[in-house]
């Protein structure tokens, strides 16, 4: 496979970009224009600064160039929300859904009746069940299928990949391999530039235009810029990072602790207990991430503590819901059937528990959940054992202390 010239292709597309007139301010348009003209890695730093986006209908780009062409693979709630957002931003977007009947329904009604039945989708959004038609000739391909189907999906689109870039929206790990989605992309599409997106991104809130933010992580500055351009809006901010491992692990690991929080909520825990679970969960995530080569400070950002807080606090979270059902006495099979969607945390618990045991990483909450779900141990007994565990430091990864100047 010929290695694609991603930076060149994306720069050409960005030069033709049609900035969303209703939401893009002159400041944002100017930043994109400067980034395209320079075509240097340091231009991404311009977009990584806080930009106060204001609606200004009088400040528009003079021309009407061709928009970015985007495919979103996966018609779940988040994939649909991202497809809708990029379509509203003026991109040419095709949403691929496996089920032919669902595609026909969405083409007719522009409503995803299964996952987002209360929301009308952008009229310009296209739908298909044909993978080749979805991805061929696109600039960006967002993959939002469950982790169990991720590798198979990439294998199917591989013959149609030329210069497209891949962005994973899937928060999870591949069963039995412990592969993150970025690992799967590198395996199946070795010459393709890729990134991962993660953050506190509950799809229904995004569809309701509640202010939200996410992180795009990639080694490619051009890819980060393209994703920011496609998704950044008045209600959805897109920050950039080059810590692929940290951002992706944050999105995968937080699902474990959402299950723990949902389970704990079934026992009417107090605010002190919730705070303890959140902070100890963050400590576990950081320990695991550092062992994998991530920057521990990444877990203090949107893809770490931000996503952890949102997922552990919201009843919209699938992992929280399944944990709550388990806490109320349902079996795992019953809970999964009632949920009707994929809860990535169930698989992640198995993967992370095994990896942590093998590498000696201290992750007591993960081990406790594994004992409850897979070893049939009583939740209250496991919780008591957790409280009686040995002494630990509160914060394990800290910046070096600086000497305070002496005062005379």
How would you sum up this structure, described in words?
One of its GO terms (molecular function) is glycerol-3-phosphate dehydrogenase (NAD+) activity. Sn-glycerol 3-phosphate binds at residues 171, 199, 254, 307, 317-319. It comes from Faucicola osloensis. By secondary structure, the protein is of the alpha/beta class. It folds into two domains: 69-242, 3-Layer(aba) Sandwich (Rossmann fold); 247-388, N-(1-d-carboxylethyl)-l-norvaline Dehydrogenase, domain 2 (Orthogonal Bundle). It is 49% helix and 10% strand. The chain has helices spanning 6-15, 26-38, 44-48, 77-88, 100-109, 131-135, 147-157, 181-188, 203-207, 221-231, 244-265, 271-292, 302-313, 318-327, 332-339, 344-359, 364-374, 379-387; strands at residues 69-73, 92-96, 126-128, 140-143, 165-168, 194-198, 212-218, 236-241. Strands 3-2-1-4-5-6-7-8 form an eight-stranded mixed sheet, sandwiched between helices. Strand 7, helix 10 and strand 8 form a beta-alpha-beta unit. It is globular. 48% of the residues are buried. Mean pLDDT is 85; it is low at 1-7 and 15-62.
